[in-house]
Design brief:
With about 140 residues, the protein is an alpha+beta fold. Helix content is about 35%, strand content about 25%. The chain has one domain (about 1-130): Gcn5-related N-acetyltransferase (GNAT) (Aminopeptidase). One of its GO terms (molecular function) is acyltransferase activity, transferring groups other than amino-acyl groups.
Amino acid sequence: MIRPIQITDLPVLMALNENELGYQYPEDKARHQLQSLLADQGHHFLAAAVDDQNGEVQGYIHAEVYQEIYADTQLNILALAVAEKWKGQGVGTALITWLEDQGRQRHIAGILLNSGESRASAHRFYQNRGFTLVKKQMKFIKKII
């Protein structure tokens, strides 16, 4: 079952971020970020895949509306994580399908995402679901505070 993410999901989301995506972030900051994202549901899409029998969160997806002046509006996947024990059981596909449905309902042209170069299995997953590699790029960050 796919359902909206709730603030009570935060511990599981943090574990998924660390174990599946390699991201660690302080819980107090993550809580603040999640509260802010949940309040902005017109721009951010957050959903959890949940086991129908016991309610266990199997994975989650977070995407945002991505608008530019040089291309059609798209959804940008910021995170897609599935717990190791649920991989290969359709959880990631269900989350992608949910996001596609959200986009179609809003007449959004497509979905884009970035994926680390070393994540070959993730790349196969996306390609098997109709995503096309369009370019390789570098990521730059500048801290300002």
